[in-house]
Amino acid sequence: xxxxxxxxxxxxxxxxxxxxxxxxxxxxxxxxxxxxxxxxxxxxxxxxxxxxxxxxxxxxxxxxxxxxxxxxxxxxxxxxxxxxxxxxxxxxxxxxxxxxxxxxxxxxxxxxxxxxxxxxxxxxxxxxxxxxxxxxxxxxxxxxxxxxxxxxxxxxxxxxxxxxxxxxxxxxxxxxxxxxxxxxxxxxxxxxxxxxxxxxxxxxxxxxxxxxxxxxxxxxxxxxxxxxxxxxxxxxxxxxxxxxxxxxxxxxxxxxxxxxxxxxxxxxxxxxxxxxxxxxxxxxxxxxxxxxxxxxxxxxxxxxxxxxxxxxxxxxxxxxxxxxxxxxxxxxxxxxxxxxxxxxxxxxxxxxxxxxxxxxxxxxxxxxxxxxxxxxxxxxxxxxxxxxxxxxxxxxxxxxxxxxxxxxxxxxxxxxxxxxxxxxxxxxxxxxxxxxxxxxxxxxxxxxxxxxxxxxxxxxxxxxxxxxxxxxxxxxxxxxxxxxxxxxxxxxxxxxxxxxxxxxxxxxxxxxxxxxxxxxxxxxxxxxxxxxxxxxxxxxxxxxxxxxxxxxxxxxxxxxxxxxxxxxxxxxxxxxxxxxxxxxxxxxxxxxxxxxxxxxxxxxxxxxxxxxxxxxxxxxxxxxxxxxxxxxxxxxxxxxxxxxxxxxxxxxxxxxxxxxxxxxxxxxxxxxxxxxxxxxxxxx
Length: 684
What we know:
Belongs to the MCM family. The protein is of the alpha/beta class.
């Protein structure tokens, strides 16, 4: 077998020709030399690294492209040598501009004069370092390529190139002054060059990790939870010390990253790249029933649960965060789905996890308090204690779906109390005192404590969750599996159609929207910061007073607290965002109250329904009567029809029922409607 010896000098010439002669043709027949321009920016210190597209290399020289793939590390060094020579060629006799605070030329002179004239009182003590630099969630660790030692006696600098992971620092200063005077000055180390960090990339459903070494400006290019595309070289890492004896000939592997592209779909990334909607998409989002169409498009293969899907849509959009004088009020919407097994709770959570721009999915039994918040780990390189973020930290500014929420241990469940309200995680472990951001919406699913839901028991008895945790959810949905011939028939037809056709049926002339369109539209909605006008203040106050009144009159009602008012504000802000509006309207508040009323009504047990089973006509008349008695003006005690419709709609009563109520009681002579469309009672 004959082996061909590669002439690397000739390969350098190919690389030089590629960097200097490759060009793209613009629309106006202009030639653009991308790499020659980058080299010029490198010479002027306006750019740190040079990025090469391998498609350009393949277009210019396919043989060079194949050679780079077969020996990436060698050609990485060859490219570096060629780029250094091209930079020197562009600079000529001119010195590079000083743009870096740690520039070697200016720093040596300044530090030499300062060191000879000062007594070193400005040196930081080891115990003070953590006060100035608190521990971070993801620490960027220094990797030295050249060590610089500064003598505290003469101020001379000594440089030591570092070729491997281990080195021995010099003990004495080698300068002429210290050698002649036998001063033997002490040498202090300074880290001069690049940084790197380790990133764990999960593959598939089996938890696996791969170490990635990131050097230079690519460090801090991503944060925990980001999805990145890494271009680099897969290389072995020889073990050192005792690990070399125990491991034998086996080696660890890592990826030496050359470039990191952040591809996780943040709202800003989507808006910066492809937020432009086509004419057809603009026509779709301009429909009057777009709110219902969006809700129907969430998990369309699941039959029914339209109001539940609407609330999940609002959780994806989210409310507006408020921070007044240091007091933070969250805008994230938390939702709890509870009910019988087999009602598609897990399927709803799974679809939301796929649809959300940034999300994490976990289960109650497979999660611990540490796994949800943050764990203290020992770094294998430095031996220091570091923090590794859990599911809630990785889902920051996103959605965290927790299935089988009731199966969690009580000690683990209490770890998320702070997250659900303060949106932070406080850590005090292993000498690390810090607070992590966890601005996340929690969507949880829980099963009844005794198999199926027992309608004769209250929610607290059916769902084994403490009241302090239940009150932190903005909406508590009860999804029951009640036998009904008509609904069971429609459900069976829907399921069989999905299994036979492989797609969901079109209902009521609505076709489910594409997931990409929904995701981009949600990203557009999140850019809005709607405000509530002063004129809606009384509307919110009256709504909250009515909720507290109902809770006081019914001892078995769902727990109502000031968090219920905040929930309505968050839901109405999310509805305003869906309309791409900067102002919350009264209709948004009405829809938010309706969702809250429907969720509470679904949570009422059968015994409570029997005690409070009132016909809809009587409910509508009770609302009209309460409004009539609330008027303080005795001379003009009349009600506008529009006010009556809005109040009844907020109570979950349709406009048809209200109109039937007015017609019925008008025929009985109890009330009448005048020409100004106002209701007047004829019987006091």
